[in-house]
Amino acid sequence: MTKTTTKIYSGPLSMFGAKVQIAALEKGIDFELVMVPFTKGDAYEPKHPDVLRINPVKQQVPVLIDGEVELFDSTQIFEYLEDRYPGPAHLALWPQGIAERARARQLEQKSDEVFFPNVIRLFGLQHDMQSAPAVAACAACARYYDEMEGLLATRDYLAGPYSFADIAFYMACIFADRKGARMTEATPRLLAWRSRMGERPAVRTVVDPMMRFLASEGRDVASFLMPR
């Protein structure tokens, strides 16, 4: 019987692709990583034919092929992987309880849809970080950091046990730092959480190549993200 090959399509600076890669590594899934062509300006050209076929409207990574299953969108891919490869409890990336899982899923969604849009507003504003749009975006990120700081008062990870919510927010924070919305000493628990996340082997396996790519392009890399 031929073994099904799981393929994950990502890119050197794909935050959402990195989320899927980290989750797959944490779960011990055997997969083939396909890095799509990348050009300067945070763009992916030429578009990979499998990406165009599976995600024809957005034409973005990540994309997953697992036998007859073909998916796009990092959250949808993760949900599929969690169902497809449940494994032992210690490899689960959602909490066990129904209510706890719902809260974790909400945190992952907020990271993508509430926090990260503020980071997107900073793209192209690094030359004018004192402008009203940049100041407003950084202030919104700081308020979100404060909210996450509160969650960490009684736990080590955002939803209690380590979960996909942590993976999503960690990757979003990397891009926030790159674009000027940095964490400060005002949120010490969140800084400690960031350090814990950065020590995880699956996280380092994915983030270190991303930072090396940035350095090769002559872009700044924060000290806490320097490859080891």
Question: What does this 3D model show about the protein?
Answer:
The chain has 228 residues and is of the alpha+beta class. The chain starts with 5 loop residues before the first strand and ends in a 12-residue tail after the last helix. The chain has helices at 15-26, 49-54, 74-84, 98-122, 132-151, 164-179, 188-198, 201-216; strands spanning 6-10, 31-35, 63-66, 69-72. The protein contains 8 helices and 4 strands. The radius of gyration is 17 Å and the shape is globular. The chain has 2 domains: 6-91, Glutaredoxin, CATH 3.40.30.10; 98-225, Glutathione S-transferase Yfyf (Class Pi), Chain A, domain 2 (Up-down Bundle). It has a 4-stranded mixed β-sheet. Helix content is 51%, strand content 8%. The mean pLDDT is 92.
